[in-house]
Design goal:
The protein is α/β, with parallel strands linked by helices. It has a single domain (2-177), classed as Leucine Aminopeptidase, subunit E, domain 1, CATH 3.40.220. It is built from five helices and six strands; from the N terminus they run ββααββαβαβα. Strands 1-6-5-2-4-3 form a six-stranded mixed β-sheet, with helices on both faces. α3 (93-110) packs across α4 (129-142) and α4 (129-142) crosses α5 (166-177). The two termini are 16 Å apart. Pfam families: Macro. Residues 1-178 form the Macro domain. This is O-acetyl-ADP-ribose deacetylase.
Length: 178
């Protein structure tokens, strides 16, 4: 798998799937979540509301992932994942790693071969960007696609970390070098 990092607006990337650093309600928010909802248009919110009424009445759990259409975005799908919030005592790196591996599981299950991630849980959720970068890169490198319901031959071929700042880019580049 090709793994790269760059400064980019995730809402502009022409990849199969972009990953949304969502909150558990799936109904939009600030940061990456708000930008994705705004760029995707109102049909994304409508689909998220349907998910809440049907399969996710209690919201999406931390570390899990679910897909929707991408609507007005150049991507085909949005994979929503809820990162752990350090301010709420969610400090287990395994929960953060799960955001990346479950998102890849979901993306591969859709047939996606190219996926873009933001720096999940960095920023408003209180995780240090160096820790996020290390956990993210290790999780993506360790993901094999050989999971129930996922054919590893049809897996994700390229992952891009789409980052918002030079500081985040430096952290992810360092993690990729290690």
């Amino acid at each position: 798998m090709d793994i790269s990092a760059r400064i980019a607006d995730i809402t502009t990337l022409a990849v199969d799937a972009i990953v949304n650093a969502a909150n558990s309600t799936l109904l939009g928010g600030g940061g990456v979540d708000g930008a994705i909802h705004a760029a995707a248009g109102p049909r994304l919110l409508e689909e998220c509301r349907r998910l809440r009424r049907t399969t996710l009445p209690d919201g999406l759990p931390v570390g899990d992932a679910v897909a929707t259409g991408a609507y007005d975005l150049p991507a085909r799908w949005v994979v929503h994942t809820v990162g752990p919030n350090r301010h709420r005592g969610q400090t287990d790196p395994a929960l953060l790693a799960s955001c990346f591996t479950r998102s890849l599981d979901v993306a591969a299950g859709l047939g996606a071969t190219t996926v873009a991630f933001p720096a999940i849980s960095a920023g408003a959720y209180g995780w240090d960007v160096d820790d996020v970068a290390r956990v993210a890169v290790e999780a993506v490198r360790g993901w094999s696609g050989a999971r129930p319901g996922v054919d590893p031959g049809d897996g994700v071929a390229a992952v891009t970390f789409a980052l918002a700042s030079p500081r985040a880019l430096a952290a992810f580049e360092a993690a990729l070098r290690s």
